[in-house]
């Protein structure tokens, strides 16, 4: 229990330090846009485009669907088991830039989904892998800057999304 408390204290210090340094209008606007790209609309559009394609796109669509079928339930179970308060509830006097869609913060669903998509699309289109992972990291970073997640929330999102992607690749291929 003491280890968890120590990790939480370190996480809060990192969060406060980052948010005290980066709350600049331009960065917040940029982070809003990046965060929006992880809201899910692009994933639905990607699935729609892949549905109309043939060949390797069918395999990518299958792995994406399986990946989300594994990742989303795991995400909900973790989020509702840990019940970690978001920064606004955990840090007195802090107000997030945006209103989160749910109550708890651990893990970050935006980050998890972004890493799932980045890993799977990057597997099938390796020339895009670095750009996709850069985008996924920015999604996680944006969630911290916008004040709705602690850094470890996004770190766990990264682990969850990547793990679900590898599971789906191993199952489908």
Automatic annotation (TrEMBL):
Entry GO CC: plasma membrane
Transmembrane segments: 30-53, 113-135, 155-172
Catalytic activity: di-trans,octa-cis-undecaprenyl diphosphate + H2O = di-trans,octa-cis-undecaprenyl phosphate + phosphate + H(+)
Membrane topology of this protein: Multi-pass membrane protein
Occurrences of domain Phosphatidic acid phosphatase type 2/haloperoxidase (ranges): 59-169
Enzyme Commission number(s): 3.6.1.27
Subcellular location per the Swiss-Prot or TrEMBL entry: Cell membrane
InterPro entries cross-referenced by the UniProt entry: PAP2/HPO, PAP2/HPO_sf
A single GO molecular function term of this UniProt record: undecaprenyl-diphosphatase activity
Keyword tags: Cell membrane, Hydrolase, Membrane, Transmembrane, Transmembrane helix
PANTHER family, alphabetized: DECAPRENYLPHOSPHORYL-5-PHOSPHORIBOSE PHOSPHATASE RV3807C-RELATED, SPHINGOSINE-1-PHOSPHATE PHOSPHOHYDROLASE
Protein's name in the database: undecaprenyl-diphosphate phosphatase
Organism for this UniProt entry: Methylomonas lenta
